[in-house]
TrEMBL record:
Gene Ontology MF: a single term: NADP binding
Cofactor(s) this protein cannot do without: FMN; FAD
A GO cellular-component term linked to this record: endoplasmic reticulum membrane
Cofactor binding description: Binds 1 FMN per monomer.
Family stated for the protein in its record: In the N-terminal section; belongs to the flavodoxin family. Belongs to the NADPH--cytochrome P450 reductase family.
GO biological process: response to hormone
Name of this protein: NADPH--cytochrome P450 reductase
Ranges that cross the membrane: 24-45
Location of this chain's protein in the cell: Endoplasmic reticulum membrane
Physiological role: This enzyme is required for electron transfer from NADP to cytochrome P450 in microsomes. It can also provide electron transfer to heme oxygenase and cytochrome B5.
Main location: endoplasmic reticulum
UniProt binding sites for NADP(+): R301, T537, S598, R599, K604, V605, Y606, V607, Q608, D641
Reactions performed catalytically: 2 oxidized [cytochrome P450] + NADPH = 2 reduced [cytochrome P450] + NADP(+) + H(+)
């Protein structure tokens, strides 16, 4: 669960802390200040009135820009009447939007999926210019109830424009969220409510998808009721055409210059060979791995510490930020897929969009080989969503298999139950499905069209840029487990990272990465106490915080109490960073080191138990000393249990009712004094 992007905090960071320097402004300062003001005024007075050039500029732009920012013009040009906007961080909302825009064809309508970041959302009021028009919003919530990165501008626009008249807009919203988080589906709920406030007409009720339960099932059930409502509204009927409609066509390249072929780059062709800043999600930096060590001394897990070198990249980060890495799939898995489908994986291909007007020319960078696509670009490890099963069903030669695949994609209770047990509970990825359904051998190009994109993975940075300006530290646990079918499933990114040895056959190992800013930040006043709660790999950002508080101390700054609550299973097995933490305690940077070793005694002891044991101290820090609280790690149990512990402490020592205590902690959240960096 990652953090929002809000300018408030950023702005404050740029003002230097004023120390006790006696005269605040010297005469020289005042002289320079007056001079600058004078020059600025002179420049303003002497400027010629600007000619209204921009008007003409606008007319020329179509020839210059390849991107059309008007979705209205695009819809008119391509005869579309349904537009599906998506706010997506990990690709699921985008996938749902594509499915809905494809659905439209069954009802004699034409849909397009659209990224709000690419279009001028101020045009929503003009949608009525298109007959029978409808806007669908698939909006995911990210982090602490925030918009996804690509919907941030749209969110700002909705908040700022009170006088916008959207009475010509017909809309519906499907929200994607996760119940384990505090602000469940906040973004979808906000868009739904806000569009109505601005006069838009809701055609169908807000759908709430819960990824903690079964997001796919929530979506199917909503969609099943949504389309009949649309048909009724527009007076249309479904054409009985349930057959699958291909979105891309296959082109095989027999004699192509290999310099034109993508080999795993995310954005620009050859961007991994010639690296150019700035680096971001569309242009990651290849950071060499300088350290990769196992942290735990025993136990059956593999916890690891990696260091990525960002020298010369111009990349800057703050403690509390996240590093995103682009992993690759296990080559053994890729080879098995090639074998089972009987395909030469090294054929160079392109999948080209049949809708030539679409902004999305290819499902992944093309031209490339099947091997590269399955290794770098496609998610082959998650259990496939039902639309993939539905579209592939036609290729099963056994009619029972075909029937089961279609059933799993339906909204019938038995179909849902079958999908839940046979696919989700059994953790069957696409390879397992092919292995367990020998009659299903789809063409590989159709499979590649349907599989979702492989996503970047986010890790809380475990270092401080004040101490390590050219290095980013990652702390992670390798994911590996046995499924109900007896297969071993391995986490894509953690196993890939584990195998990133510092030198691999004399070459440096590199990791494609970029930084995602967060609001998980130390207080501006170094004198504010901090209470950090991070069991397991939740310790990561606090290693950065502790390094930074140590650095501030070395600078001669007065630093407030720095309190850590950490937890692991056994003191002599998986106590991560023991040397560093004990050293920080010894030199007074960590004023308290509280550790819950959950399995070193009869009864389990967790961080929340230690919080309750030290309740007087905790309450004084929060209520009297203005402490900031930080929680990192598991959202499902730990973050909830810790929050309950704080409620109980406030009740008991603050003499509050449960409701008052809950409000008290909520207020700390809104003030930025209770921050969470959690995942589930």
């Amino acid at each position: 669960g990652l953090k929002p992007e809000s300018p408030e905090h950023e702005v404050l960071l740029s003002f230097p802390m004023v120390e006790e320097e006696e005269p605040l402004f010297s005469n020289l300062d005042l002289f320079l200040f007056s001079l600058i003001v004078g020059l600025v005024i002179y420049w303003f007075m002497s400027r010629k009135k600007p000619e209204p050039i921009p008007e003409f500029k606008k007319l020329d732009t179509p020839t210059l820009t390849t991107r059309e920012t008007s979705f209205i013009e695009k819809m008119k040009k391509t005869g579309k009447n349904i537009i599906v906007f998506y706010g997506s961080q990990t690709g699921t909302a985008e996938e749902f939007a594509n499915r809905l825009s494809k659905d439209a064809q069954r009802y004699g309508m034409k849909g397009m999926a659209a990224d709000p970041e690419e279009y001028d959302m101020g045009e929503l009021s003009r949608l009525s210019e298109i007959t029978n028009s409808l806007a669908i919003f698939c909006m995911a919530t990210y982090g602490e109830g925030d918009p996804t990165d690509n919907a941030q501008d749209f969110y700002d626009w909705l908040q700022e424009n009170d006088d916008e008249d959207l009475s010509g807009l017909t809309y519906t919203v499907f929200a994607l969220g996760n119940k384990t988080y505090e602000h469940y589906n906040a973004m979808g709920k906000y868009v739904d409510k806000r569009l109505e406030e601005l006069g838009a007409k809701r055609i169908f009720d807000l759908g709430l998808g819960d990824d903690d339960g079964n997001l796919e099932e929530d979506f199917i059930s909503w969609r099943e009721q949504f389309w009949p409502a649309v048909c009724e509204h527009f007076g249309v009927e479904a054409s009985g055409d349930e057959s699958s409609i291909r979105q891309y066509e296959l082109k095989e390249h027999s004699d192509i210059n290999m310099n034109k072929v993508y080999t795993g780059e995310i954005g620009r062709l050859k961007s991994f060979e010639v690296q150019k800043p700035p680096f971001d999600s569309k242009n990651p930096f290849l950071a060499p791995v300088t350290v990769n060590r196992k942290l735990n001394r025993g136990g059956d897990r593999h916890l690891m510490h990696l260091e990525l070198d960002i020298t010369g990249s111009k990349i800057r980060y703050e403690s509390g930020d996240h590093v995103a890495v682009f992993p690759t799939n296990d080559s053994a898995l890729v080879n098995k897929l090639g074998q089972i489908l009987g395909v030469d994986l090294d054929v160079v291909i392109s999948l080209n969009n049949l809708d030539e007007e679409s902004n999305k020319k290819h499902p992944f960078p093309c031209p490339t080989t099947y091997r590269t696509a399955l290794t770098h670009y496609l998610d082959i490890t998650h259990p496939p969503r039902t639309n993939v099963l539905y579209e592939l069903a036609q290729y099963a030669t056994n009619s029972k298999d075909q029937e089961n695949m279609r059933k799993m994609a339906s909204s019938s209770p038995e179909g849902k139950a079958l999908y839940q047990s046979w696919v989700l509970d059994s953790c069957r990825n696409i390879l397992a499905i092919l292995e367990d359904m020998p009659s299903l051998r789809p063409p590989i190009d159709h499979l590649c069209e349907l599989l979702p994109r492989l996503q970047a993975r986010y890790y809380s940075i475990a270092s401080s840029s004040k101490v390590h300006p050219n290095s980013i530290h990652i702390c992670a646990v390798v994911v590996e487990y046995e499924t109900k079918t007896g297969r071993i499933n391995k986490g894509v990114a953690t196993n890939w990272l584990k195998n990133k040895l510092v030198t691999d056959n004399g070459h440096k190992s590199t990791v494609p990465m970029y930084i995602r800013k967060s609001q998980f930040r130390l207080p501006f006043k170094a004198t504010n106490p901090v209470i950090m709660i991070g069991p397991g790999t939740g310790i990561a950002p606090f290693m950065g915080f502790i390094q930074e508080r140590g650095w501030l101390k070395e600078q001669g700054k007065e630093v407030g109490e720095t309190v850590l609550y950490y937890g692991c299973r056994h003191k002599n097995e998986d106590y991560l960073y023991q040397e560093e933490l004990e050293e920080s305690e010894k030199n007074g940077v960590l004023t308290q080191l509280n550790i819950a070793f959950s399995r070193d005694q009869e009864h389990k002891v967790y961080v929340q138990h230690l919080l309750k044991q030290n309740k007087e101290d905790i309450w004084k820090l929060i209520h009297t000393d203005n402490a900031h609280i930080y929680i990192c790690g598991d959202a499902r149990n730990m973050a909830k249990d810790v929050q309950t512990a704080f409620h109980e402490i406030a009740e008991e020592l603050g003499g509050m009712t449960r409701t008052q205590a809950t409000d008290y902690i909520k207020k700390l959240m809104t003030k930025g004094r209770y921050s969470q960096d959690v995942w589930s």
